[in-house]
Amino acid sequence: LFVGLSRMTRGDTRGAADLFGWMLERYPQGSGAPQAALLRAQCLHREGDLREALDAYSAVIRSAQGVALGDALYGAASIHHAQGRLDDAATLLERASALAPDDALAGPLRLLRGRVLLDGGDTRRAVREFERAAEDADLADDAAYWTAKCRLREGDAEGAATTLATAISRFPNSDLLPEMAYDRAVALLRAGDEGEAAEALDAFRREHPDHAMAPEALRLAASLAHRAGEYDRSRALCVEYMRSYEDQPSARSVELLAAENDHLAGRVDKAIDAYRRFLRRGADDDLELRARYRLGMALHGKGDGREAADLLESVVRGTNTSETMRPALIALGDIRFG
């Protein structure tokens, strides 16, 4: 048992799981068997082997008592939650809470119950659970973060931004600091404060350049700069994105945004070339329709009416948004009757 725990401490959870499994086969009735079974389940969980981990937790639940049972219920509930089985997770959490409502597991149980409620859309009850979870000082940062997520779900973007700003100030060493910083930028954007959102995104990118949300933060920063009329800055951010994240799902939209920046900055010939390159790779989606519209308008501005008309007619046939329909029709009228 001690060797297995040592392996867990060193991060060798797969090796620890194998060792605990060997112990259970060799000494199934040993005094350390219940703990070994729980530790094996936890190792499998950390390894991401969720199906086997859930089976292992379930075996513990069927046979264990006391602390091991509570931990197994919590572990199984977290897997059900991660896989979207919210009712199963809630049932196990209620059972775990009834075992020892005030022990060391109470805070984590409340935090997980709050997340289950949040994912189920019951933000009011979720907030109450997060408030109770925050009574555990070790979970106060998690509770603040998930409370802010509730505010966002409720549409209270200003409240979410304020909650996250407070949490960032109170918990500068939190493991959730990158997520807090990114979600604060999103909350500011949803609240309509695009200037503050842009500054928050820039700070996030400086402080957390390798985070999983760094590509999306860069895309949002480029979009905000474009909307602010900072076309050269937006284009530079687009180029940075395409150089660093060309395989990301949003790469096509960023490529098109770069061309639009050239267009609006007066570099029309460069934009036309970029629109043509974009369209040659066609995907028959809304982005292609937008590129046809932009290219048609650029060509119309340069006096190339025939190709512009063909492009704009394809836009009118394919679009159902007033954003492009009306100006495309006006441009077509100008070409045909101007």
What would you say this structure looks like, in words?
Helix content is 78%, strand content 0%. With 338 residues, it is mainly α. The relative contact order is 0.04.
Q: Tell me the fraction of residues in β-strands, as a range.
A: under 5%
What is the number of strand segments? 0
Total count of helical runs of at least 4 residues? 19
Low-confidence stretches: none
Structural class: mainly alpha
Taking Cα atoms only, what radius of gyration do you get, to the nearest Å?
27 Å
Share of residues in helices: over 70%
Shape: elongated
| Main sheet record | none
Q: How far apart are the first and last residues' alpha carbons, in Å?
A: 86 Å
Elements, N to C (H/E): HHHHHHHHHHHHHHHHHHH
Q: Summarize model confidence as the mean pLDDT.
A: 92
What attributes does this structure have?
single chain; 338 residues; mainly alpha; elongated
What is the compact description of this entry?
The protein is mainly alpha-helical and 338 residues long. It has 19 helices and no strands.
In terms of topology, how is this protein built?
Layout: H1 2-9, H2 13-26, H3 33-47, H4 50-63, H5 66-82, H6 86-99, H7 106-119, H8 123-133, H9 140-153, H10 157-170, H11 177-190, H12 194-207, H13 214-227, H14 231-244, H15 251-264, H16 268-280, H17 286-301, H18 305-318, H19 322-337
Helix pairs in contact: 1-2, 2-3, 3-4, 3-5, 4-5, 5-6, 5-7, 6-7, 7-8, 7-9, 8-9, 9-10, 10-11, 11-12, 12-13, 13-14, 14-15, 15-16, 15-17, 16-17, 17-18, 17-19, 18-19
